[in-house]
Amino acid sequence: MKRKVILATHGSLAQALLETTQMIIGPHEDMLAVGLQAGMAPEAYKETLEEVFLQYPDHEFLVLIDILGGTPFNSIIGRLQKPNVQVVVGVNLGMMLEVMLNQEHYALDELAEFAKNMGMKSLMTKNELLNSFAKE
């Protein structure tokens, strides 16, 4: 089944993540950015997301969202029971890069778990960085 990765965030974060990911690894037609712009009504945003799903009826979707409980997350709640939709909250650039470079190796459910793990793995404190350098 064909797949789309949807970045659903507040403001221009989705577009910035998409552009930065493509700058690093090249263009990917299977990435879409849907940002909630300032002044946009939550219902209008939800309709925009729904249009994406309707535009690609034969696809499965990995939806990467910025924060739990925000409008992008709330707009996707109705799709959580769909078997062709997986959601990961807490998107970051490390997660995006790993997802786009490795998505063909995973089924949708596995890709969501992989995305979560890669997002968490990309987070480090100064002490963790220093300890990792000391081990080398």
UniProtKB/TrEMBL annotation:
<keyword id="KW-0813">Transport</keyword>
<dbReference type="InterPro" id="IPR033887">
    <property type="entry name" value="PTS_IIA_man"/>
</dbReference>
<dbReference type="InterPro" id="IPR004701">
    <property type="entry name" value="PTS_EIIA_man-typ"/>
</dbReference>
<keyword id="KW-0963">Cytoplasm</keyword>
<dbReference type="GO" id="GO:0016020">
    <property type="term" value="C:membrane"/>
</dbReference>
<keyword id="KW-0808">Transferase</keyword>
<dbReference type="GO" id="GO:0009401">
    <property type="term" value="P:phosphoenolpyruvate-dependent sugar phosphotransferase system"/>
</dbReference>
<keyword id="KW-0598">Phosphotransferase system</keyword>
<dbReference type="Pfam" id="PF03610">
    <property type="entry name" value="EIIA-man"/>
</dbReference>
<dbReference type="GO" id="GO:0005737">
    <property type="term" value="C:cytoplasm"/>
</dbReference>
<keyword id="KW-0418">Kinase</keyword>
<feature type="domain" description="PTS EIIA type-4">
    <location>
        <begin position="2"/>
        <end position="123"/>
    </location>
</feature>
<dbReference type="InterPro" id="IPR051471">
    <property type="entry name" value="Bacterial_PTS_sugar_comp"/>
</dbReference>
<dbReference type="GO" id="GO:0016301">
    <property type="term" value="F:kinase activity"/>
</dbReference>
<protein>
    <submittedName>
        <fullName>PTS sugar transporter subunit IIA</fullName>
    </submittedName>
</protein>
<dbReference type="InterPro" id="IPR036662">
    <property type="entry name" value="PTS_EIIA_man-typ_sf"/>
</dbReference>
<keyword id="KW-0762">Sugar transport</keyword>
